[in-house]
């Protein structure tokens, strides 16, 4: 009944969510992030970065440096009223800051330029939730690799307290902060020289099975690039693509099942990272052990290798990090269950003429009237976005047939192409959509309807609609987004063209209140299933198998019946 009433209301013209507030931004604000507790915003802009109070939108601290422009920023809570910030500037330098006692302190520079002829460029930089780890993908002279760092959070908190007690604004520059330690350095899989031409499997045989698979992975990636180059008529473009470095995507993983990692680590801290490289078929998992002091440069082997049938295009990790979803070429979606160490499901999404763009887990999925018999606890819900703008939803669980639905069709024009399609964690079943033409709206992913539009003032437009600068505040239920002045609307104001920070408070619109949900505890606070021995993990797995035998037999019977029906249809088609 609740879903029906929502659908009836949505047939009317969608309402407009009015702007809650606006304030002037620093020059060239390129990036924006919000702390998990919703108290602060971090802004990266020309000259450095700043921290703002999220409720009053007042700048409370700045870190400035001449001829510097920040292009990426992250923010996470490392303690009560202490926050860690990670940034990348326009020269590819990554830094780690701390905001504490209304002061921003520079704690560490990740890629210090020691030799101008070997200048390293940070391509991506990510902080784990809580700020205990960081990961940077670095490029230097054509080579690329991933470095994972362990941050001395406890030592930094003590040093921040000492700096605050001195009450000296210059103490931050004189302070010697505890250094970050490199936990692991990961390079992309490479093809051994003996396999560059013959491509024989015998030449790939090695003494270690993981080395064997990594060699195969590197060999397939090289062969695929060579095939693309031979089939591409644009030789220059093909050569540029073939010579471009392999990029990596990573996710921090919390303890889970038999892959819990180091049981002596503090509860809620990441214990591993999963990594895949562009052109790769395999997902690699590395435990976050410190490198041996006597062998710091030894190339690590992955602790777990998750093989896949096709090339990985995109990935996503569930909030608890138990499930890893991979979008593969040829419209395949693999969902791996870290708890069991096996695929939860393999789904063929409706084929289109476009490749996957991104995947996203949906934490809160309401029941619609026709789904009341199939949606149940333990189900996984995914949103699959294609490059042409089409969106599909995937629902799956262990031992049952997966369900796929088309949410939106492909975009009819380039202006309607969505650049952002993000699940809103505090609004059940709603996604935030931003298009190239500057339109913003909330969409009901179950009823396939537009709930409301978000429209900036007529004097402004959405800044950089192809890459919007925005942040969602899960505590205040607010969207913060940058807007630029529309010069075509007021030609006389060309002298004052600075950007504005707009805030939209979702609960000001009555129709949105019915979708509001309370967020559960942070994954760092949830109790994970850890095992001291492989025997304990095996016993739990066998108990779960015994408890689910009826459900699995039912699913097996349904699958067998469908196979028989399909066989009859095939025989009839051949007979005719």
Task: Summarize the structure in words.
The chain has 576 residues and is α+β, with helices and mostly antiparallel strands. It has helices at 2-10, 153-166, 171-174, 209-231, 235-243, 510-513, 534-547, 549-575, and strands spanning 16-17, 21-24, 31-34, 40-53, 59-79, 82-89, 94-100, 103-109, 121-127, 133-140, 143-150, 181-186, 248-253, 272-277, 282-287, 304-307, 312-317, 323-328, 332-337, 342-348, 356-361, 380-386, 391-396, 403-408, 418-423, 430-435, 440-444, 449-454, 460-462, 470-473, 478-485, 500-505. The chain has a 6-stranded antiparallel β-sheet, covered by helices on one side. Strands 1-28-27-26-25 form a 5-stranded mixed β-sheet, with no helix packed on it. Helix 4 (209-231) packs antiparallel against helix 5. The protein is globular, with a radius of gyration of 25 Å. Residues 193-201, 203-207, 368-377, 491-495 and 524-528 have low confidence and may be disordered.
């Amino acid at each position: 009944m609740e879903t029906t009433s929502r659908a009836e209301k949505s047939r009317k013209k969608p309402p407009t969510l009015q702007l809650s507030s606006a304030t002037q931004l620093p020059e060239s604000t390129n990036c924006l992030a919000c702390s998990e507790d919703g108290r602060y915003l971090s802004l990266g802009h020309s000259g450095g970065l700043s921290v703002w109070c999220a409720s009053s939108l007042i700048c409370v601290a700045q870190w400035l440096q001449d001829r510097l422009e920040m292009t990426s920023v992250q923010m996470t809570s490392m303690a009560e009223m202490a926050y860690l910030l990670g940034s990348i500037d326009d020269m590819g330098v990554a830094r780690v800051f701390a905001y504490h006692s209304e002061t921003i302190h520079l704690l560490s520079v990740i890629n210090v330029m020691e030799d101008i002829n070997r200048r390293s460029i940070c391509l991506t930089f990510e902080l784990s939730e809580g700020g205990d780890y960081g990961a940077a993908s670095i490029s230097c002279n054509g080579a690329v690799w991933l470095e994972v760092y362990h941050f001395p959070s406890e030592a930094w908190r003590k040093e921040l307290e000492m700096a605050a007690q001195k009450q000296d604004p210059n103490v931050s520059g004189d302070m010697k902060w505890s250094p970050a330690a490199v936990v692991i350095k990961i390079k992309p899989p490479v093809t051994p020289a003996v396999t560059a031409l013959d491509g024989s499997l015998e030449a790939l045989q090695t003494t270690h099975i993981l080395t064997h698979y990594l060699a195969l992975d590197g060999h397939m990636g090289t062969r695929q690039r060579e095939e693309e180059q031979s089939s591409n008529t644009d030789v220059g473009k093909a050569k540029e693509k073939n010579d471009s470095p392999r990029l990596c995507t990573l996710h921090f993983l919390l303890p889970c099942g038999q892959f819990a990692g180091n049981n002596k680590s503090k509860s809620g801290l990441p214990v591993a990272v999963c990594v895949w490289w562009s052109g790769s078929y395999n997902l690699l998992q590395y435990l976050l052990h410190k490198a041996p002091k006597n062998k710091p440069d030894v190339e690590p082997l992955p602790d777990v290798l998750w093989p896949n049938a096709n090339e990985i295009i995109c990935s996503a990790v569930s909030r608890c990090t138990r499930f890893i979803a991979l979008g593969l070429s040829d419209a395949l979606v693999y969902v791996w269950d870290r708890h069991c160490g096996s695929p939860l499901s393999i789904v063929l999404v409706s084929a289109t003429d476009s490749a996957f763009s991104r995947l996203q887990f949906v934490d809160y999925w309401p029941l619609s009237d026709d789904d009341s018999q199939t949606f149940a606890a333990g189900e996984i819900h995914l949103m699959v976005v294609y490059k042409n703008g089409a969106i599909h939803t995937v629902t799956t669980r262990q031992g049952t047939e997966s369900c796929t639905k088309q949410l939106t069709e492909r975009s009819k024009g380039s202006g309607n192409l969505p650049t952002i399609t993000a699940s809103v964690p505090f609004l059940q079943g709603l996604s935030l959509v931003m298009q190239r033409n500057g339109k913003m709206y909330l969409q009901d992913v179950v009823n396939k309807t537009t709930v409301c539009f978000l429209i900036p003032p007529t004097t402004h437009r959405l800044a950089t609609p192809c890459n919007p600068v925005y942040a969602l505040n899960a505590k205040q239920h607010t969207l913060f987004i940058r807007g630029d002045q529309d010069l075509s609307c007021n030609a006389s104001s060309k002298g004052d063209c600075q950007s504005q920070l707009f805030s939209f408070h979702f609960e000001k619109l009555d129709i949105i209140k019915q979708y509001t949900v309370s967020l559960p505890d942070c994954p760092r606070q949830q109790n994970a299933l850890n095992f001291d021995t492989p025997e304990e993990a095996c016993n739990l797995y066998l108990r779960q198998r015994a408890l689910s035998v009826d459900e699995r037999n039912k699913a097996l019977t349904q699958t067998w019946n469908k196979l028989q029906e399909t066989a009859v249809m095939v025989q009839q088609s051949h007979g005719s």
